[in-house]
Predict the structure.
Amino acid sequence: MGRPGGRGPSDPGQYGLSTGSPSTALSLRAGALYDVLGLGQARLAIALAAFAAGCLFVGRSVPAWHQLLAYARDGERGAK
């Protein structure tokens, strides 16, 4: 069970589905567009865009990690 008043799914297993599905769909769409648009000639631009998207994804996950770490610290204090 999740914390009362908390945000997000109450089952931690749901996080994987909620973050993995959009990422998979985006990757499949990007792969399909890569072939259709003939982007093999623009390797550097594609690599830079993919790197920027990865940095954005990691940067947006930082608040969730802070929330997870705070939750873990509260659990450690309660166990003592």
User: Anything to note?
Assistant: The chain has one domain: 13-79. The chain has a mean pLDDT of 74. The chain is about 75% helix and 0% strand.
